[in-house]
Design a protein that fits this description.
By secondary structure, this protein is α/β, with parallel strands linked by helices. It has 9 helices and 8 strands. Strands 1-2-3-4-5-6-7-8 form an 8-stranded parallel barrel, surrounded by 5 helices. Helix 5 (about 160-170) links the parallel strand 5 (about 145) and strand 6 (about 175-180).
Length: about 270
């Protein structure tokens, strides 16, 4: 399995720190967060993609995944009128283009909160239409679209492995696949390993971090309550050989370099 660094927590540092640290600390790849000031897709399209390519070459550190910011302001394809949904889709098509340009294998999307008054018969058709459009573009550019369930603190309808299975029953596209961030199943008392049984070959990526009940916090591996040592045993048992990102997000903004190193050091001990 390949171990990736997620760069959201570095957003107050120069982007070069992400690549330098990933190389020095022993990560295999970067999952690049796409938000200002670092890798916002319209900025990449306007020329900043050249900086990303230079950093990839300088540090010999590939960007295998691109995770654009799109769960809140100003983009969330699950909420607002149709023109806002279309705007978010067009933005994410640019993101797919930029993912291709930087050599990424996948782009991640996560269906966020659709609003307190939205009903399932509004939310699901909206998601089907959006993922169908994005999936068609993903197949054109040759980048996988990885769909991620969120915690109930983040999304009011797309939170479980069965939600992915329901989506894939409607969207038959080899470029649209699923993943498991271990925090959502843990806080919902759902089986993490159940994702593999439910999704089969559609299970394509993981975010592995630690967590605690009652919160969506993403914690350095080994410092929360998730039985990660046992999880790693099970992943070895099924010969999981795809990508894993250690997804530290905003909880360590003050010292992202310290915690990026601690995260991979702790994780390797679990292996």
């Amino acid at each position: 399995m390949k171990i990736g660094m997620f760069t959201s927590g570095y957003q107050r540092n120069p982007i070069e720190h992400c690549f330098a640290d990933a190389k020095e600390y022993g990560y295999d790849f970067i999952e690049l967060w796409g938000g200002r000031p670092h890798a916002f897709a319209p900025d990449l399209k306007n020329g900043d993609i050249n900086l990303i390519k230079k950093l990839i070459d300088k540090f010999e550190m590939p960007v295998l995944g691109y995770t654009p910011e799109h769960n809140a302001y100003p983009y969330n394809y699950m909420i607002g009128p149709e023109n806002q949904r279309k705007d978010a889709v067009e933005y994410l098509k640019i993101c797919l283009d930029m993912a291709k340009e930087m050599g990424a294998q996948y782009m991640l999307t996560s269906p966020a909160n659709g609003g307190y008054l939205a009903k399932y018969d509004e939310l699901w058709p909206r998601l089907f239409e959006t993922i169908r459009e994005l999936g068609e573009h993903a197949s054109k550019v040759g980048v996988k679209l990885v769909v991620e369930p969120l915690t109930p603190y983040e999304s009011n309808f797309f939170t479980r492995a069965n939600d992915l299975a329901y989506l894939f029953a409607e969207i038959d596209n080899p470029y649209v696949v699923g993943m498991c961030d271990v925090v959502p199943p843990f806080v919902q008392h759902e089986s993490i390993m159940g994702y593999f049984d439910i999704l089969g070959d559609k299970m394509d990526h993981m975010h592995i971090i630690d967590g605690d009940q009652g919160t969506d916090s993403h914690i350095v591996p080994g410092e929360g309550s998730i039985p990660l040592k046992e999880l790693m045993y099970e992943l070895k048992r099924i010969n999981y050989d795809k990508t894993i990102t250690l997804e530290l997000v905003l909880g360590y903004l003050n010292e992202p370099r310290f915690y990026a190193k601690r995260a991979i050091d702790n994780f390797k001990k679990l292996l």
